[in-house]
């Protein structure tokens, strides 16, 4: 079956599923295969559960005329999404960066949806599978799609841009994330800048943080750039007013009081304001959209539980995000502070030095009640409580009474430190 024919089929059944547990009626099931699973085995189940067709790449699972055999299911999914993108009228804003991608995406979507029919990447489905799935959610009514792009190695953003062909782009920052795959911070900068390269080659508009020296250097004299800044009159002026603990900011004599903590969320809000202004969203709508946004999914959530004031930032962590989270926690004017910090993953040969740097920062900031969880933190040179695993932490907490504390919980997704809430 050609991609053109498959796309016609998709237009008739415009829902794509990759998980038989979430099958919807009249959908198309793509039998993706990974290291630990083979989606081909579930093709029949998908059809029995309501899928109209199942796309497979192993002939032995051809169970009926509703199974369509292709050479490679993943490649077919990607080709279908690229074909669909080429035939839709929606404008696409691509978003990447080391930290803050998902929060920024949600803020941009909150602002733009005040005026336009939008779609945005769900959760953090931002890789070689997630981006195609996002593109296939674009309908004839969609006016703007905000597509988050993640990467852990060189060439990945370039590949995702080839599929999505963005009309606009924004990079949140360049930080110490996925150092193992990128080979160091220079690799991170080069990899994320693949978005810039794509947009510049097509003479597309780029949104930027005018106070970020790396972004300014990378874009140089490129004409089609629109920026924000706290002081540079070349760009749109937005200033931070307060961050104790929730940030408030000012633009065009308007104060915005957010539900976001940490100075690191200031630029995320600025990007949403800038893009809202570019797309002619009324000032009051921009303000209300940002003020209404409430972070969820373990990202800088404020939780009050049994007398504890908890900052739950356990969705992910890297050296850059860990550093700003600790500095923000230090500046919060509260007593009885406790840190629960989990290992930062995908650092490769940089793991030892980066975990030690975080421990040194904790010492410098004079935090006293500190729990370090994970193999990497356990190897650091420190006098803090070090535990090799979450199970070790769970045992340790059974003999500790915690009352009325201010708590920061942060670690990589694989640590799943949100489980600590069960002990509070």
TrEMBL record:
Residues of the Mur ligase central domain: 96-275
Enzyme nomenclature, EC number: 6.3.2.10
Keywords: ATP-binding, Cell cycle, Cell division, Cell shape, Cell wall biogenesis/degradation, Cytoplasm, Ligase, Nucleotide-binding, Peptidoglycan synthesis
Every Mur ligase C-terminal domain range: 299-413
Residues reported in the UniProt entry to bind ATP: 97-103
GO terms under cellular component: cytoplasm
Pfam families: Mur_ligase (PF01225), Mur_ligase_C (PF02875), Mur_ligase_M (PF08245)
Catalytic reaction(s) noted: D-alanyl-D-alanine + UDP-N-acetyl-alpha-D-muramoyl-L-alanyl-gamma-D-glutamyl-meso-2,6-diaminopimelate + ATP = UDP-N-acetyl-alpha-D-muramoyl-L-alanyl-gamma-D-glutamyl-meso-2,6-diaminopimeloyl-D-alanyl-D-alanine + ADP + phosphate + H(+)
Known pathway: Cell wall biogenesis; peptidoglycan biosynthesis
GO BP, sorted A to Z: cell division; cell wall organization; peptidoglycan biosynthetic process; regulation of cell shape
SUPFAM superfamilies, per database record: MurD-like peptide ligases, catalytic domain, MurD-like peptide ligases, peptide-binding domain, MurE/MurF N-terminal domain
Subcellular location: Cytoplasm
Keyword Ligase: yes
Family membership: Belongs to the MurCDEF family. MurF subfamily.
Job of this protein: Involved in cell wall formation. Catalyzes the final step in the synthesis of UDP-N-acetylmuramoyl-pentapeptide, the precursor of murein.
Name by which UniProt lists this protein: UDP-N-acetylmuramoyl-tripeptide--D-alanyl-D-alanine ligase
Organism: Saonia flava
Lineage, highest ranks first: Bacteria, Pseudomonadati, Bacteroidota, Flavobacteriia, Flavobacteriales
């Amino acid at each position: 079956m050609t991609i053109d024919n498959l796309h016609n089929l998709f237009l008739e059944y415009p829902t794509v599923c990759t998980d038989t547990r979430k099958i919807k009626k009249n959908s198309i099931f793509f039998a993706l295969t990974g290291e630990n699973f083979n989606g081909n085995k579930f093709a029949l189940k998908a059809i029995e559960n309501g899928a109209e067709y199942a796309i497979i790449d192993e002939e032995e699972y051809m169970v009926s005329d509703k199974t369509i055999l292709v050479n490679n299911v993943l490649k077919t999914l990607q080709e279908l999404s690229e074909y669909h993108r080429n035939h839709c009228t929606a404008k696409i804003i691509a978003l990447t960066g080391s930290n803050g991608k998902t929060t920024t995406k949600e803020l941009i979507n909150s602002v733009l949806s005040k005026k336009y029919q939008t779609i945005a990447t769900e959760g953090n489905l931002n890789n070689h599978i997630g981006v195609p799935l996002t593109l296939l959610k674009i309908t004839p009514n969609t006016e703007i799609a905000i597509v988050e792009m993640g990467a852990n190695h060189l060439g990945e953003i370039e590949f995702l841009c080839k599929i999505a062909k963005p009309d606009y782009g924004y990079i949140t920052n360049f930080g110490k994330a996925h150092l193992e795959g990128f080979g160091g911070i220079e690799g991170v900068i080069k990899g994320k800048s693949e978005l810039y390269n794509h947009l510049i080659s097509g003479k597309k508009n780029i949104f930027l943080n005018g106070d970020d020296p790396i972004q300014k250097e990378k874009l140089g004299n490129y004409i089609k750039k629109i920026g924000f800044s706290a002081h540079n009159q070349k760009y749109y002026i937005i200033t931070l007013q307060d961050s104790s603990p929730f940030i408030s900011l000012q633009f065009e004599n308007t104060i915005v009081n957010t539900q976001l903590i940490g100075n690191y969320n200031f630029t995320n809000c600025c990007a949403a304001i800038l893009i809202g202004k570019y797309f002619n969203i009324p000032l009051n709508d921009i303000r209300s959209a940002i003020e209404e946004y409430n972070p969820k999914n373990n990202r800088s959530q404020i939780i009050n539980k049994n007398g504890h004031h908890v900052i739950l930032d356990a969705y992910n962590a890297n050296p850059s995000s860990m550093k700003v989270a600790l500095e923000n926690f230090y500046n919060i004017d509260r007593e009885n502070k406790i840190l629960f910090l989990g290992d930062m993953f995908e650092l490769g040969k940089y793991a030892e030095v980066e975990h030690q740097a975080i421990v040194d920062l904790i010492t410098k900031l004079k935090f006293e009640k500190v729990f370090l969880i994970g193999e990497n933190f356990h190897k650091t040179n420190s006098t803090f409580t070090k535990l090799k695993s979450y199970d070790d932490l769970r045992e340790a907490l059974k003999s500790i009474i915690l009352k009325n504390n201010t708590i920061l919980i942060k670690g990589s997704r694989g640590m799943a430190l949100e489980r600590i809430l069960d002990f509070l």
